[in-house]
TrEMBL record, chain A:
One of its GO terms (cellular component) is plasma membrane. Signal peptide: none annotated. Keywords: Cell membrane, Membrane, Transmembrane, Transmembrane helix. This is Putative ABC transport system permease protein. It comes from Nocardioides albus. It holds the Pfam family FtsX. The chain crosses the membrane at residues 20-41, 53-73, 108-131, 151-173, 194-217, 229-252, 281-305, 325-353, 374-404, 416-437. It is found in: Cell membrane. Its main location: membrane. Residues 64-178, 331-443 form the ABC3 transporter permease C-terminal domain. The keyword Calcium does not apply. It is a multi-pass membrane protein. The keyword Cell membrane applies. InterPro entries: ABC3_permease_C (IPR003838), Macrolide_Exporter_MacB (IPR050250).
From TrEMBL, chain B:
It comes from Nocardioides albus. The keyword Cell cycle does not apply. This is Putative ABC transport system ATP-binding protein. SUPFAM superfamilies: P-loop containing nucleoside triphosphate hydrolases (SSF52540). The keyword Cell cycle does not apply.
Length: 449, 255
């Protein structure tokens, strides 16, 4: 199986690029922060700096882990789904489901190993740069020495490998379920039911968000530390967005239905039906667009409100804490946005690589390249619109309670121009990645002929 | 004499250059009168598929002309050829090539939409009639996954006819079907030719399928080497065996 996996990898070098990039970046980002924990635990590190380093390494590292894992799981899933026909073929010539899963795992392991090790090399440099940055910013004292963080980096690599294998196992078992057939299942209707666990994830996230919002608004104003409210609300927008992302196929169908009147012409007609009847495909793109929008809007608005409303005359300790916290906020936002952006591009590339035959078919039937591009662009427009709107709504879970507790009322006092700007960025990114992916797919179809 | 629905003259298509040049078509001449059903047969590598892609204006020939109802398509720009393809040529493929997220009715309507025509009441009626004609009047709202292979191919045939094309090109249309379903799809194609006056050119390697046509043209090495009118399966199979023998002998001589 392993030799087969290596051969198969050589044949699909480009298809595996997405997985490779996701794992490489995941390791690099996580590995930039996890060595800080190791530095903190170093006997030579002053105990005053320990807490800052632990918080930085722990909080950002944990967020990074969640995001990196999310992106690795979704990318591996998409990569495997692209190969349903080939997996069907393997099964018809006698591969057992167990062997198919082993093949998928072996392939992913090879890619993940190379990507994670390279990512760790990158991280060994960036984590030093990060410590220097923190020291020059005065967040961490100059006497702290970077110990190399070998153990932390190794742990990061192992963690990413384990997650990649788990993702591959999940995707492989989904791909090898059901009877063996070479018939491409591209037509598998997307209007099917939403799996129970998606409802569960969404319900838990919505419930948790609602509870936290209510608690913050009830008690936050009386809290002694002005950062308690921030700690409680900071991640709610993201939490809600991730929860709602579990329902992405449903949201896409609803959005496509609402936007139907705007979808005119042949391209719009095709896009409307593709988004509603095969929502499971484009849901993989919608989820990161939602997360990207929600993260960027909620955290940047939070920082803005905080800077406007921070009580004057705080103790020097609190002021230092203030610096660290806002640095953290900005780093986390940048990281989440970078990841979500890469996932949007990745997911679109994967979805369209999957649809080359279908686009070719449209061309055979007499569609001009412009019509094909137009229909994909219209689909991207639907995804972008739904993602931006849902992301903006999810961000309110952070903005509303925080603005209320800090005395700005339910709507923040300033910076209302920021959300539209950020959302426009998310929409532009979605459309641009669709255009890029379509050009590649169309070029590939004309080569295929 | 009436203008042929499809005429190819001296059609030549060479892949590669220099020593690696392989002629897939080598001066093929062929004409199909309107309202006829022609089968094109030949051993593997005889140029059947290349003929279809050139005749369908998908690919430019190296030399020679392709005339659809008297109009030379090899002189047209890519954009004009695309327009030509969707308005005057209908395609039926071995793999059906339906769009998975459109219903049968929407799939049939697609060429009209791509051509920028409005789907008005008249168009809707025409689509319904075609679906009735191929025996799927009650399946108009079904998605391809909810249809059997034979039914999907019937939808594809209705789609090929919806623009009222000068010529329908079918590439192994029954290759993916069982023999019983294949027979009914071939009978349908034949009746569309005789009752609606459609012109069909079908590439196949199956003598039984070819026997449904009015005439069979045999290709060998990119050239037409024979023609059989009112074919019966046994005679076609005999001729094919003979052609296989011929090619085998030429190959032996070349070695």
């Amino acid at each position: 199986m392993f030799t087969l996996a290596l051969r198969s990898l050589r044949h699909r070098a480009t298809a595996m690029t997405a997985t490779f990039v996701a794992i490489l970046l995941g390791t690099a980002v996580m590995g930039s922060f996890t060595p800080l924990i190791q530095v903190a635990l170093d006997p030579g590190t002053p105990s005053a700096e320990q807490e800052t380093l632990l918080v930085l390494g722990g909080v950002v590292g944990a967020w990074g882990t969640v995001i990196a894992l999310f992106s690795v799981v979704s990318t591996v899933g998409i990569t495997v789904r692209q190969r349903e026909v080939e997996i069907g073929l393997l099964r018809t010539v006698g591969a057992e489901p167990r062997q198919v899963r082993a093949l998928v795992r072996a392939e992913t392991l090879v890619v993940a190993l190379v990507a994670a090790v390279l990512g760790a090399l990158v991280a060994s440099l960036t984590s030093r740069a990060l410590l220097e940055l923190l020291q020059s910013g005065g967040v961490v004292g100059e006497q702290v020495v970077h110990s190399g963080g070998g153990v932390a980096l190794a742990a990061t690599v192992v963690l990413l490998l384990v997650v990649s294998l788990a993702a591959a196992g999940l995707a492989g078992s989904r791909a090898s379920r059901g009877p063996a057939t070479v018939a491409p299942s591209e037509g598998r209707a997307g209007s099917g039911r939403i799996a129970w666990w998606r409802w569960a994830v969404a319900l838990v996230a919505v419930g948790q968000t609602a509870t936290m919002v209510a608690m913050t608004m009830a008690t936050g104003k009386d809290a002694a530390n002005p950062y308690d409210a921030m700690a409680m609300t900071g991640s709610l927008g993201l939490l809600l967005a991730v929860g709602l992302a579990a329902l992405a196929p449903l949201l896409l169908r609803a959005g496509s239905w609402l936007l139907r009147p705007l979808l005119v012409g042949t391209s719009g007609h095709l896009a409307a039906y593709n988004t509603s009847r095969r929502s499971h495909l484009l849901a993989g793109v919608l989820a990161p667009v939602m997360v990207l929008s929600a993260a960027a809007v909620s955290i940047l608005m939070l920082v803005g409100i905080d800077e406007r409303t921070l009580p004057a005359g705080l103790s020097p300790e609190l002021t230092e804490e203030f610096e660290t916290i806002n640095l953290l906020n900005n780093v986390v936002t940048a990281m989440i946005c970078a990841f979500a952006a890469i996932m949007v591009v990745n997911a679109f590339a994967a979805v369209l690589a999957d649809r080359r035959l279908e686009l070719h078919r449209l061309r055979l039937l007499g569609a001009t390249p412009g019509q094909v591009r137009g229909s994909v662009l219209a689909e991207a427009g639907i995804v972008a619109a739904v993602g931006a709107v849902v992301g903006l709504l999810a961000a309110q879970a952070t903005i509303v309670p925080f603005a209320y507790v800090r005395g700005e009322g339910v709507v923040p006092d300033a910076q209302l121009w920021l959300p539209p700007l950020l959302l426009a960025g998310a929409v532009a990114l979605t459309l641009a990645s669709a255009v890029g992916a379509t050009s590649r797919a169309l070029r590939a179809t004309s080569d295929a002929r | 004499m009436t203008t042929p629905a499809l005429e190819v003259v001296g059609l030549t298509r060479i892949y590669g250059t220099g020593a690696a040049a392989v002629p897939a078509l080598n001066g093929l001449d062929l004409a199909c009168a309107p309202g006829t059903f022609t089968a094109v047969m030949g051993p593997s590598g005889s140029g059947k598929s290349t003929f279809l892609t050139c005749a369908g204006a998908l690919e430019q020939p190296t030399e020679g002309r392709v005339l659809i109802a008297g109009q030379d398509v090899t002189e047209l720009s890519e954009a004009r050829r695309t327009r030509m393809r969707r308005e005057r040529i209908g395609f039926v493929f071995q793999g059906f090539h339906l769009l998975p997220y459109l219903t049968a009715e929407q799939n049939v309507a697609l060429p009209l939409r791509l051509a920028g025509r409005r789907i008005d009441a008249a168009a809707r009626r025409r689509i319904r009639e075609l679906l009735d004609r191929v025996g799927l009047g009650d399946r108009a709202g079904h998605l391809p996954t909810q249809l059997s292979g034979g039914q999907q191919q019937r939808v594809a045939i209705a789609r090929a006819l919806v623009t009222g094309p000068d010529i329908v090109l079918a590439d192994e249309p029954t290759g993916a079907l069982d023999s019983h379903t294949a027979a009914s799809v071939l009978a349908l194609l034949r009746s569309l030719v005789h009752e609606l006056g459609a012109t069909v050119v079908m590439v196949t390697h199956d003598p039984v399928a070819a026997a449904y046509a009015d005439s069979v043209v045999f290709l060998v090495d990119g050239r037409a080497v024979g023609r059989m009118e009112n074919p019966v399966a046994e005679a076609v199979a005999g001729q094919m065996a003979h052609l296989d023998e011929l090619t085998a002998r030429t190959e032996r001589e070349m070695v």
